[in-house]
Amino acid sequence: MNMKRGRNLMGTNNRIDYAQVVWEITRLLQESDTLEDALRTSLEEVVKAVGAEAGTVWAYNAGGDQRIYPSFWIGGADLTGLSLAPGEGIAGAVVQTGKTTVVKDCQKDARWAGRFDEATGFVTRSMVCVPLVNKYEVIGCIQIINKKDGSLYNDEDVSLCENLAMLAAIAVDERGLNLGFTEEKKAIVSLRDVRKTFGEGENQVQALKGINLDVREGEFLVILGESGCGKSTLLNIIGGMDELTSGTFLFDGEDYSHADEKTLTMYRRNSVGFIFQAYNLMPLLTAEENLDFIGELCDNHMEAAEALESVGLAQRRDSYPAQMSGGQQQRVSVARALVKKPRIILADEPTAALDHDTGIEVLAVLENVVRAGATLMLVTHNEEIARMADRVILLKNGVVAEVIVNRHPASAKDLEW
Fold this sequence. Notes:
Mean pLDDT: 87
Number of strands: 15
Strand content: 15-25%
């Protein structure tokens, strides 16, 4: 998964610029190491070129349940687990008819599947939707959604989208990409229009500006973004360590948006495991004693020896933090999170204080934790770590800027930075 942004091809003459975009898309689809990366980057180029808010590549499961599934999307809406029935919505209609459709006002269009906006918190106003057609049949469609300046799509915009669809369909035929279909899993965390403000008056800072996000059971989710984008604030709200200013935060269907301190304490104790950049181990306790201390606070905890064995540190059970390396201390902190048998594990920059080899060692442990069925949400500014995730949420200035589904997560041992 290539997390790097595409180059800016916009200038003053749209006709020339659009020709450059088509040339760049052609090159990407032909030369990129993986077709998934090429399609995602090509979609991003078109979204930027036409000044849109979002874009989606939909895949038609013709050989299965006949539904239409989102394969790639750019923008703030999280479409994970959503799909359309045959003919449902504008995307379904385009796949069914094989005809390009331009919609000026989706909210007033009888074909619009409004449940998607309800599910994601995104507001769809206008769109261009073009079919993906291979040599024999329609295999999906591409949607470009909402002009940022509020204007309507013109003929050049539509032509660019049709060029992307044509080139993408050819590339899929030639390079044999399986667009894939998103497996629907239960959401254990649901955030809707979550906002967080610090300070008052002139000193007021909006850390989160309307986050809509679901965390699904058993997934490895990475929150990616630069310092100050709201990553840690988001993690603190989900961890019950900070209260949102407005919006809704549900965990396993229960509302914790403005829960009292006693309720939040029990939530943190029984449902959430924490891994921090600083190991936060108690220096006068051994590795096993650090875990026993946490386990005694929980009703149904894992034995400390079992948790230490799961992170490869059974032989260091009697060691004090000062007797262990930084990587070993962080692995103890992973074991400390596991000993609670939490529903979700939250990791805030867990490798930031470690060198590359030691960081990979810790990430390999987390990889095994997810494979064993845990739900892990990891915050980082390191784009390379995002390659391990099932999904990547890119935060910019307190909002979700992009959601990336990664069907082929990298192993920790394959990462380089």
